[in-house]
């Protein structure tokens, strides 16, 4: 049943669903399932109406393509939106965002405003749902944005965009509980998976990542009233030729925030520039007061069985906030090798006193700087 969207589980409760026009050259259109007979009252079986709307929009085709010109989207729109559905099952489908023109127009490094292009697939307010075997290609901005979801599993996701594509995070998750990403293969220009504020009980396993910027928690601390991030597990992943491996990033001069109970377990790094990174001075476009410490509190973080090669000498960098040092950070069985002209792999630490067990290479926080 590949390349087909099925709605196996019935009773889409409280359903409002729309998606943008899909056919190359057309102005993007809104499709609202209510126009196809859906009652969206939380009681009726609306799956037939959803299927009809979906077919009408061209989604039964093997590969759906977005309009290439970003001007055909109202700014901040997403191409395809799943909104407010309980018990949804999506199976198969390839979604090509045709992002090349959009990447060339992306000026976010200059302006600091990075959300004015459409996301390929937005999943808002889904509960108890399964999204299986979907492919996102060449998104203009993030490939997939998972927001305000609860108990949703993404199995066998494939994401592909070139390394040079800007801000094309693979899967971004925010303000969601119980999201489970398994067996994903992600090649893209930004973070393979990124977790924003309010992520709780998120499990990421068997993900291959690269090229890209690795798997990230954050960035945190940019906005007011950010919700805590907690209960995050990243395990059995392979990360190859990326800028970072696993990373926690928070802004300096930040708002108050919390990231705790984060576990990174059994991860293979192949030629990753900074395999293990806590960066509480994250300031990608140089537009922050780097000297003011972050107010995001990071605690209960464990790195276990992280092995492979580092593309730079600095394999482990734990830079915590001077204002609120990291608490209860533990590293066990780390083996990250650097094959370069500069010597062997090293670590650098600030404002953290990690608990160290097992075999550790490089030696971690042997000399504390800052
Ligand atoms: C989570 O969602 C799945 C898939 O719809 C469902 O089978 C399961 O019962 C849900 N779990 C909870 C705790 O609601
Ligand atoms: C995530 O989903 C996979 C595949 O369905 C399952 O084996 C695993 O137990 C789930 N993990 C969690 C934490 O829900
Ligand atoms: C993760 O890998 C370990 C070691 O290879 C294995 O024992 C464990 O079953 C794997 N866990 C999952 C959830 O795949
Ligand atoms: C290692 O990574 C660097 C920088 O990302 C890249 O230029 C280089 O081609 C990679 N090496 C291999 C052997 O893939
Ligand atoms: C090697 O060291 C030099 C001088 O410190 C530095 O500029 C360069 O970035 C290092 N190269 C790598 C791959 O770490």
UniProtKB/TrEMBL annotation:
Record keywords: Cell wall, Cell wall biogenesis/degradation, Glycosidase, Hydrolase, Secreted, Signal
GO terms for biological process, alphabetical: carbohydrate metabolic process; cell wall organization
Family: Belongs to the glycosyl hydrolase 28 family.
Annotated active site: 213
Molecular function GO terms recorded: polygalacturonase activity
Record-linked SUPFAM superfamilies: Pectin lyase-like (SSF51126)
Record's signal peptide: 1-28
Subcellular localization(s) per the UniProt record: Secreted, Cell wall
InterPro entries: Glyco_hydro_28 (IPR000743), PbH1 (IPR006626), Pectin_lyas_fold (IPR012334), Pectin_lyase_fold/virulence (IPR011050)
Main localization of the protein described in the UniProt heading: secreted
Protein source organism: Fraxinus pennsylvanica
Name assigned to this protein: Polygalacturonase
